[in-house]
Amino acid sequence: MSKLLVIAVLLVVLFFLDWYLYQAIALLMKNSGEALAKTIRYIYWGFTVLTFSIILIYNFGNPDWLEGQVRSLVFTGIFINYFSKVFGILFLLVEDVTRLGKWAISLFQNPEPELTGNSMPRSEFLAKTALIAGSVPLLAMSYGILSGAHDYRIRRKKIVLPDLPKEFDGIRLAQLSDIHTGSFFNKTAVKGGVEMLMNEKPDVVFFTGDLVNNESKEVEEYIDIFNKVKAPLGVYSTTGNHDYGDYKSWSSAQAKKQNFEDLKEAHRLMGYNLLMNENRFIEVDGEKIAVLGNENWGAGRFTKYGDLDKAYKGSEEAPVKILLSHDPSHWDAKVRTNYPDIDLMFAGHTHGFQFGVELGDFKWSPSQYAYKQWAGLYQQGEQYLYVNRGFGYIGYPGRVGMPPEITIIELKRAVA
Predict the structure, then answer these.
(1) Which of 215, 354, 371, 406 has the most CB atoms at less than 10 Å from its CB?
(2) Which pTM value belongs to this model?
(3) pLDDT tens digit string along 263-279?
């Protein structure tokens, strides 16, 4: 199917949504003054014209006519607008299906049935209900941008490891994941999130990938913020699927390769010990535990750069092994089946879909339909997995019911 046909179909669908919802608006305006009705009509259809113009210019004109973050916000606004309309239209559809059913029944009761506005008028109550229902996702997703995007939360867990050396009893591990610097629009808020982490005074910090969305240059203006992340026993990091530039068209293979080299340099400039399918030992008073860093590896469609055999090699004698691996599907697919002595894995990737509900022990998100382990702490036997909900965001520049996360995990030694 040609691009022109796809865009034409999209515009027809969007126009139908606008027209269908406008019937409810017109009904509620029927007793309003002509001036008010005209103003609302011009504003409503003016947004439609503006939306269609943006879509056409982006697809058939200059796609870079808007700066990256502005473009993201514009298309997010378009998505929220039509998602909210669909939500409201569902109520109108219920009424119209009911009206159609009544009319069909009347065919057998009245030899000359009529389906007119006078004989079967649309309910003003349902029209109001539809508009109110449509405003719910509009307000929620707008609030998710203005407030939820940087509403950082500290999540704390304790994990007991039977083989943890006594020198490491009580060690505090901090985790960040999915920073996505290319999406940020509030540098002050991001700085505040880093300060929250540092106020926790962690002994070691782990970052589990997705520093950028597509290009290493996205992190440049945030290096002086994330280089404030320090810990006595070091900061260790690995890569996520977005760090390789796989979702961008590059002028050459060399350009893509250079982009990744620049990303690795950004880790160095921030003081992060980037583990590329390798391991390091953390030592306290002569005792050691191993930190393994695996490049991105997921059980799904994402490109598999990771090599856990290489990351594991040389760590065999460590009493405790901690793995940093971006995609949580790695745990079931490889880690649990092939490496039963990896005690704890840190992952991210899912973002908790940036949308969900968490009340006490209950949690729900669309993310759970794609990932068995999608947020929080999981245990199988004596192995643990922690999935961070993400520090940043991508696509929709906000969060609803799934705030950005800073994880603090305290390791405890099993009491004999």
Answers:
(1) 354
(2) 0.82
(3) 999 999 999 999 999 99
